[in-house]
Design brief:
This protein is α+β, with helices and mostly antiparallel strands and 585 residues long. It contains 12 helices and 30 strands.
Length: 585
C-alpha cells in the first residue's frame, strides 16, 4: 500500500470512529419500533414516555433514553428513571435484530402495588417476584441509586432507599439471581437472592447482612403440591427486639432476649415454618430442640421444646417491663393485650438455671400464652438440697386482670442458699415456704392492693447470725444497762421457727410466728404492706423460764428491715408495779 493510500485509510477509520463515538439525537418514533420494543421484551416494562433517545455504535452499540416513564402491562409495577441505558449485543445487531445483554436504570423511582391488608415482608415481596417470574428470561438489569415504593391503596406501606441491585441475565429455565444493597428503615443492608422461578423444583438461597442481622438460607424449593422450601437456616442478631422492630413487629415478651443466634433445618410453607435440629443461643446460653412458627387468621403462633445445659432466667426476667410504655407515672397500666398478642406454647428444660442469684438444677419451665391468657411457671427444680416450683396465671376479665400466683419451696438448705443470696446469709438450717395469692386489677398498683391469700414458712435446726438472744437474756437479767449497749453480735441457734399469715387487700398479717431455741422464745406479730413492700411488726423475746420481756420492732423495707429494741422498753419483771424503767445505758 502506498503512503497516500495509507493516509486515506487511516483518515477514514478515524472519521468512522468519531462518528461512532458521537451520540445522535433521533426521533422518538424511530426508536420505539426497535429499541423500545427490545427493552420491553427483556424487562417486561412498557415505556410510557421519554424526553430523548440517543444511540452510539462504537466501541459497543448502546442506547440511552432520558427521563423515562415505564409500567408493567398489568400496572402492578411502574415508575420513572432519570436514564435507561441499554447495551446492545453486536451479533444480533449485524443480523438486523436489536437485543440487549445489559440494561441500566439510573436513579429509578419504582412503585409496586401491594394489597391493602399487606403488613409484612413476605406480602410485599409477592408483587416483585410475580413480575420477575413472568419475564421467564431477561437481560442483566442494574438499578443504581434508586427508590422502591410499596404502595397500598391510599398509603405507602414501606420504602426501600439507596437501592443498588443487579438482576443477573437468565434464560427461561434458569433461577432468578439478585444481589446488591439497599437501605430499609434507616438500616443499610446487603442482599443476595437465588430463586427458582420456572422449574417445579430448584435451588434457592438468601443472605442478608446488616448492622442488625446476619441471615443465610440455602436449600431447595418445590412448587407442588404446595410451595415448600427446605434448607439450612442461620440467623444472628445483636438484639432480638431491635431486629423484630426493624420488621415492624414488637412482641412484648421478645424484650427478654438480648443477643440471639439460631441455626436449624427449616421447612417453609405458606403461613408455616417448622424448624428442626435447632441450636439457639440466648446471650451465652445454648438451647437445642425444635420450633414451629405459624400464622393463623393474622395471629402468629410459636410452639416448641428446647433443652440445654444452662439458662439465666433472672437475666431474661430483668429485661421485661410489664407496664405500658406510655403509661402515666405511677399508673403502671398492664398492657395485657400486647402481652397476649401472640400464641406461645414453649417448654424449656435445662440442667442448671440462675434466678436472681439463686442456682437451680434439673429445671423444667414453660410459657403458655393465648388470647386473654398468660401462664408461666417452673414445673420442677432442684434447689439447695430441696425442691422449688411455681406458677403464675393471668387472665383477662371484664373487671381487669385476674392474677393467681402459687409458689413452693421444700427442704431448702439455707446455709447453702446464703452463698448465692446475700439476703439469706444470716440464716442457716432447713426450711420450706408455701404461698398462694389472688389479685384483680387494671394496673399493677390495683393488683397489689387487691392481693389475698395465705403464706406459711417453717425452718428447723438452724442459726440466726448477728444476734445472740439467749446471751442477751442472761446479760439483761444480771446487768440490763451494760448488756444492752452492744447486743447486735453473736449467733442464735434455733430448733424450730415458723410463721403463718393471711393476706387481704394487699396487707399481709402475721398472727402466729415464733422461733424457739435453748433458753429463749421469740414471737412476732404485725403486718407487711405489699404495694409499698414495707414491714411494721413487733417482736417479743423472753426466756423459757422467767418473767423478763424484751420487746423489739421490725420495720422498714421488706428487702432490708431494721430490728430495734423499743426505746421505751421496760426491762423489769412482768407484773411489777411502779418504779422507773431500767436504764438502756
Amino acid at each position: 500500500m502506498t503512503r497516500r493510500a495509507s493516509i486515506l485509510v487511516y483518515s477514514l477509520l478515524l472519521l468512522l470512529g468519531l462518528l461512532g463515538l458521537q451520540s445522535w439525537s433521533i426521533a422518538v418514533a424511530r426508536v420505539e419500533k426497535h429499541v423500545i420494543a427490545a427493552i420491553e421484551a427483556r424487562t417486561g416494562l412498557v415505556v410510557t414516555g421519554l424526553d430523548r433517545a440517543e444511540i452510539a455504535l462504537l466501541p459497543l452499540p448502546r442506547i440511552s433514553l432520558s427521563n423515562v416513564g415505564f409500567t408493567q402491562r398489568n400496572g402492578q409495577v411502574s415508575g420513572r428513571a432519570l436514564r435507561i441505558r441499554a447495551r446492545a449485543r453486536l451479533l444480533p445487531l449485524l443480523a438486523g435484530r436489536v437485543d440487549f445483554d445489559r440494561i441500566d436504570l439510573v436513579a429509578p423511582q419504582i412503585d409496586v402495588a401491594v394489597a391493602a391488608e399487606s403488613d409484612g415482608v413476605s406480602d410485599w415481596l409477592v408483587a416483585p417476584l410475580d413480575y420477575l417470574q413472568a419475564l421467564r428470561a431477561q437481560s442483566r438489569i442494574v438499578l443504581t441509586a434508586g427508590s422502591i415504593f410499596m404502595r397500598a391503596p391510599g398509603t405507602i406501606a414501606t420504602i426501600l432507599r439507596d437501592v443498588n441491585l443487579v438482576i443477573d441475565e437468565r434464560e427461561p429455565e434458569e433461577p432468578l439471581a439478585v444481589s446488591g444493597s439497599l437501605n430499609w428503615r434507616g438500616v443499610p443492608a446487603e442482599v443476595n437472592l437465588l430463586w427458582p422461578v420456572a422449574a417445579s423444583r430448584g435451588r434457592t438461597s438468601l443472605s442478608v447482612k446488616s448492622s442488625l442481622l446476619k441471615l443465610h438460607f440455602d436449600g431447595t424449593r418445590s412448587a407442588s403440591p404446595e410451595p415448600t422450601t427446605n434448607g439450612q437456616l442461620s440467623l444472628t442478631t445483636r438484639a432480638l427486639p431491635e431486629l423484630l422492630g426493624w420488621f415492624g413487629e414488637r412482641p412484648r415478651l421478645a424484650s427478654a432476649i438480648g443477643a440471639f443466634s439460631l441455626t436449624a433445618d427449616a421447612r417453609i410453607r405458606p403461613h408455616d415454618m417448622a424448624l428442626s435440629n435447632v441450636a439457639a443461643r440466648l446471650d451465652d446460653n445454648r438451647l437445642d430442640g425444635a420450633l414451629n412458627i405459624t400464622m393463623t387468621a393474622g395471629r402468629p403462633s410459636l410452639s416448641g421444646t428446647l433443652a440445654g445445659a444452662e439458662l439465666d432466667l433472672g437475666r431474661l426476667l430483668s429485661r421485661l417491663d410489664i407496664t405500658a410504655p406510655d403509661a402515666a407515672p405511677g399508673a403502671a397500666a398492664l398492657p395485657f393485650e400486647a402481652w397476649t398478642a401472640q400464641d406461645i406454647d414453649l417448654r424449656v428444660s435445662v440442667e442448671a438455671a440462675r434466678l436472681n442469684g439463686a442456682r437451680l438444677g434439673d429445671v423444667a419451665t414453660y410459657l403458655l400464652v393465648k388470647n386473654g391468657r398468660f401462664e408461666t411457671g417452673i414445673l420442677r427444680a432442684n434447689a439447695y438440697g430441696g425442691s422449688a416450683k411455681g406458677r403464675l396465671l393471668a387472665m383477662a376479665t371484664p373487671n381487669g386482670i385476674d392474677v393467681k400466683l402459687a409458689a413452693g419451696l421444700d427442704k431448702i438448705n439455707l446455709g447453702q442458699a446464703g452463698a448465692d443470696l446475700p439476703q439469706l446469709t444470716r440464716l442457716s438450717g432447713t426450711g420450706g415456704l408455701q404461698i398462694n395469692l389472688d389479685g384483680l386489677g387494671r394496673s399493677l398498683p390495683e393488683v397489689l392492693k387487691s392481693l389475698s391469700g395465705k403464706a406459711t414458712v417453717a425452718l428447723r435446726q438452724g442459726e440466726l447470725s448477728g444476734f445472740s438472744f439467749g446471751e442477751l437474756l442472761r446479760r439483761a437479767e444480771r446487768n440490763p444497762g451494760l448488756a444492752l449497749r452492744d447486743w447486735r453480735q453473736g449467733k442464735t441457734a434455733f430448733e424450730a421457727a415458723s410463721a403463718s399469715s393471711v393476706i387481704a387487700n394487699g396487707i399481709l398479717t402475721i398472727n402466729d410466728a415464733q422461733m424457739a431455741g435453748p433458753g429463749y422464745r421469740l414471737t412476732l406479730a404485725g403486718t407487711a404492706t405489699l404495694p409499698t413492700r414495707t414491714l411494721n411488726m413487733a417482736a417479743l423475746l423472753q426466756p423459757t423460764t422467767g418473767t423478763l420481756r424484751l420487746p423489739f420492732s421490725l420495720t422498714g423495707p421488706i428487702e432490708a428491715p431494721t430490728l430495734e429494741l423499743e426505746p421505751e422498753s421496760m426491762l423489769r419483771p412482768a407484773g411489777a408495779i411502779g418504779g422507773a424503767p431500767l436504764p438502756l445505758r
